[in-house]
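Now read this:
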Amino acid sequence: MDWVENLELSTIGLISLLVIFTFSLVIQWFIKRSSRNEGEANSLDQQFTTIGYAVDGQPSHDLNQGYLRSISEQRLTLVVRGQHHKGTLLSIDLEPVLGFDRRQVRGKVIKSTKFHRGQGSWLLTVALDPKAVSGEA
């Protein structure tokens, strides 16, 4: 009967080790996930040019922060926090963008899609209005 007790104890020991190992893996996963979310803003700063933008009707001194991905004379794409629906008018400050002849542009959101990095980030495609442009300010 000793071998039955030893078998029961070793089974309980193996199950305990398995539970502890699984618990430690879950904790490591949560730590890795939370550190990735904290570093998201820093990595966006390093990859893209940070610009300011205002939704139509928002005071111009209270700019939102966005990250410019691409720009041309007709449209631009930027990553922002929070969703802006198709048709939303934006005023965009391009002061930090080197080599672009306009300092401030206005445009309309033509496409809004969930950005794959992080929670609450959206990729906006904005059609620029060539008439509503301020030059060298």
